[in-house]
Every structure is written in C-alpha cells, then in structure tokens.
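User: Okay, second chain of the day. Same drill as before: sequence in, structure tokens out.
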Amino acid sequence: MAKAREIILDILYRVFYDSGYASLLMRKMKADEKDAAFIAETVYGTIRSRTLLEEQWKPFAKKTKQKTAVILDFSVYQLFFMDVPDYAVVNEAVELAGKHEGKFVNAVLRRVIEQGLITSEKPEVKYSHPAWIQGLWKAHYGEETALKIMEHDQKKAVSYGRINTLRTSKEEMEKDPALDFIDEICFRFEGSLQKSKAFKEGKVLIQDYSSQQTVKLLEAKPGMKVLDACAAPGTKTQQIAMFMENKGSITAGELHEHRAKLIDELMKRTGVSIVTSRVMDATQKVFFEKESFDRILCDVPCSGLGDLSHKPEIRWHLKPEDLDEITVIQKEILSSCSSYLKKGGILVYSTCTLNRKENENQVKSFLKAHEDFELLSERTIFPFEYDSDGFYMAALRRN
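Assistant: Same drill. Structure tokens below.
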C-alpha cells in the first residue's frame, strides 16, 4: 500500500498547490484495480473534507510544510472515514514524511487519534466549502438551499449515462442489469461504463442527467441547421444529432484544435455523420453569416459551482475575482452567437454553475440589449434535486 499512498500524496499535492484535477491525474496513474479504488476514495474524500480535516490536526501544528500538510490531511481522512487500522495510517504517514518530518507527523497524528474526531456546526467547516461560496449561495438562493447544496456536494457523485438511439434502443439496453433507467434515454450506473462493450460500440455515453435536459430544451428537429458553439468533447453535440435522427447539419465549435478532434472521434464512434467540427473563438462575430442557424446551443465556460460533487477541487481552485472574468466571456459568446440565429429560431444558454451573475442576470442583461429576443423558459437544477450536477438553462427565441 506504500506505493498507493505515494500516488495519493502526488495527486493531492498537485490538486491543492498546482491547480490540478484529480480525475485527470488519476487517469495517468499506474495502479492495480484494488489500489485504484483505495486511491480514489482517499483522494476524493480528502478534497471534499479538507477544511474539516485541517480542523483536526492544525491545533497541534503551528507551521507546516505543504507536503506535510497534505500527508496529515489524507491520513486524518483515513483515520476517521476509512476502514484502515490506526497503526497502518501512522506508520505509512511517517515513512512518507521522511526523516526530518517523520517525528513531527507521528506526534501530530497520535494527538489527533487521542483527541478523536472533532465535529463542527460551522457550515464552512462541516461541509468544507470556502466561506465566500457559502455566502454567495446564501445571498442568491437562501440559507436553506445553500446548506442543502453544500451537504450534497459532500456525497459521492452519482454516475449517469445516456443511450444513443442511432445505435441501440432502450429495450435492448434494459437487458443490462447494471443500467438503471430513469427515463427514455437516461440511466444511472455503477462501475466503469467506459470499459463496457456498449460504450466502445457507441451505444451508450457518459452524460449527467442535468446536461441531458439542456439539449432537450433546444427542441432540435431532423433537417435543421444547428450550431453548438462551445461543443468539446461533443457529448451534447451527439445528443443533438440523435434527436435530429442524424438528418440536417450541425457545426460544433471549439476554441482548441486538439479538443475539436475529440468531437470528431466521438461522432465517428457513435455513428453521427451530420457534424462538422470547427476551431473557432465563440466570442467573435466573424465565422458565419447573420441568421444562419435554426438552433444554437451556447453551453458556455463557467465557474463550475454546480459540479462540486464530480469535481470537488473547484472549490479550492476558484477565487471570487474569477467570476467577474468569466462573466465577460459569457456575455461576449452570447452576444456574438445570437447574431447567427434565424428569426423564429431558438438559442439555449446554459452553464453548469450556481451563480445568478453567470445565469439569470446574464440572460436579463442580454434581453435588455437585444429587444428582438424573448425568454421562453429558464430553469435551475440544484444538485440535491436529482443527485445530479447543478445546472442553469434558458431558452430564448428570436422574433
């Protein structure tokens, strides 16, 4: 298990001090299946509970090196939230810390064990969210909803998938007991869908429940001309093509060439022939003629505050000033892409965040500046409603 803890230390250090993402880092690690499960539980649990964990050991450590702090964080998580013997946790931590820090780590962890788990009723400690995020949600949605979001963020994320009706049917896929259908195309699952035969054959895709609702709002029909402005990796693009029965045309825009290739690969695997990927900056009005598309999806870059269950590290990476920067980009994308929409067409604006500045206020500001558009509907999905990501979506029509 020593090797596993070295991997854990490396991943968590990069997450906390180098803005890394656990899921991406774990894809690159070399570990057997048993160790991989142990690593994943420790890494995600430590990220989600960081503040609570630090409350346990910081009273016994006035000044701590970054590497040592990470070792203490995940060791405390294993002590109180995993089925690992105390002696094993301490011994491994001491060995990882090395000669100079080992005695210190040993002393701190033994004090923590003697003390026992100290709980807190402070939400920012109990649920390990920065106070500014708690304050933002309280101001936007009320204290009760803010606490429910924070509580849900601490749970292991539920995995959702979607069938690809261009390659299979619900009736066929229902034969697989591992898939728990919740509507005509969406299902829950456990384990690795990516390793399944159905995934490799393009019959199923990994896609969150809330993400699927965004595409439904677009009401794309066969034969239409559609723009997915911020498309990579292409999961929503594929869903649009599926609803269009692979008839018509879809342009899938993406800022980076290597990510545009991901769209092409996905379309090939899932049997879609109507999608053309295009490297483009969606903030610019220079790529298409005015009023070129029947439908436009602007699933814009956002702060990701609705996705803290799947990506808990976002809460530690994000700063309040980042929100102001991202809203400028969102505004430019929405304004630029709206010029490409035909009269009578529908544009869907969506984010995977919970922040009115990026959501409702962004749409209000757009409508004020574009009197030829009207709001058809808007919806916020909170994570606790369906055990899914938090999402905002608004359907706008050009008159």
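Residues 123-154 form one domain.

User: Thanks, on to the next one.
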